[in-house]
Every structure is written in C-alpha cells, then in structure tokens.
C-alpha cells in the first residue's frame, strides 16, 4: 500500500486519501464503515495524545540507536492503536552494515525495528511504538516487532552463540513488555508470514535452541 506524507511529516495511507473518492462506488454504508475504521486508527493525530518521544532513546537497554529513514516505517502509537502480539525473525542476507545502510535509504521502503550483529551488538532503527515495514504483510507489520540478524540463510556459521543469546534476550524483553507468549506461535520466521516470498531465517536457524534461550531469560519489568 503506497503512502503519502502530510505537512507535519507523518505518513497517511493512500487508502485514507481515497476514502472520499471511492464512496460513491462503495455505497454509503460501506464507505462510512471504512472511514470510521481509518479514523479509529488515526486517533493519535489529536493534540496531546502522542506518547513521549526522546531523540536517540531506545526501547531495549544497551541497544544503539540508528534511525531508519522515515520512508521505511509509519508513525503509530502502539500498543494503543495496534496490539503487539508477534516477534518476526529475519536474516539480512548480508552484513550488519548492509542492513543499516538499506534501512537508512528512503528508496528501500523497508526496515526492521532491530538489527543484531554476529557479536551480539544490537541496533534499534525504529521505535517499537511505530510500524516498521519489515514483514511484507500490512497486518503483521502493525502487530509485530521485526528483528533482523546479520548473515546468510545458507551459512550455518552466520548464527553465532553471541547472536543467539543477544537476540533471545531482546525477544524475551519484547515478550515481557507486551505480554506475548514465548512460543513458536508468537515468535515466528519471516517465511511464516502470510503472503511473503522470503525464506528467512532458513533451515539453519536453530528454533529449538532459540526458544529455549528466550524462555530461560528472566526479565524484570520496570515500573512506568
């Protein structure tokens, strides 16, 4: 779904802009329902309802903030406008630097919330409250956090112990923040997203090991 930018810099889906023009063809009842649905997702535009945003702040302690291009994600106020109930695991098919470079490129039109390096270093590129274009499926983008991992699906050596452990801590923290069960129904591979043509994280990603590590992490929930 293509999008355009308002004068304030926020992104509005093309569907929103076309609601009025399509009303006659859809019929008054259907058009009114579509408009109400879209407006219910845009409540954060009203003054005073945005969550606080501090430049450079990260959701995951210890992560490095590297901002993705604004063309590669959509402003939101999750989980108040979209419930978060999935973590999607990706593999870059390249290096950590490759992922950072393309996610900062406005022409790429995609980015994940996080990128994990071979040595376990984590970069956050999109805030968790915002919708990153990572899954190739609008519904999954709106409901999930995307984690990219440096490496190649065809190379088992890509997936180091440091990477597994750092990623598992990150996923466990995300699950704690949003009450997501730590299981394979809610922690999924990109290949499992409906409609995708991607194969990552691939057959060499050790899901049994990863889920064990995620479940072993003890996360202390901080007061907000």
Automatic annotation (TrEMBL):
EC number from the UniProt entry: 3.5.1.28
Gene3D superfamilies: Peptidoglycan recognition protein-like
Keywords: Cell wall biogenesis/degradation, Hydrolase, Membrane, Transmembrane, Transmembrane helix
GO molecular function, one term: N-acetylmuramoyl-L-alanine amidase activity
Any coiled-coil regions, as ranges: none
Keyword Isomerase: no
SMART domains referenced in this protein's UniProt entry, alphabetically: Ami_2
GO biological process: cell wall organization; peptidoglycan catabolic process; peptidoglycan turnover
Enzymatic reactions: Hydrolyzes the link between N-acetylmuramoyl residues and L-amino acid residues in certain cell-wall glycopeptides
InterPro entries: Amidase/PGRP_sf, Amidase_domain, NAMLAA_amidase_2, TAT_signal
Boundaries of every N-acetylmuramoyl-L-alanine amidase domain copy: 73-202
Domain of life: Bacteria
Pfam families with a match to the protein in the record: Amidase_2
PROSITE patterns for this protein: TAT (PS51318)
Membrane-spanning residues: 16-35
Protein name: N-acetylmuramoyl-L-alanine amidase
Organism, scientific name: Streptomyces violaceusniger
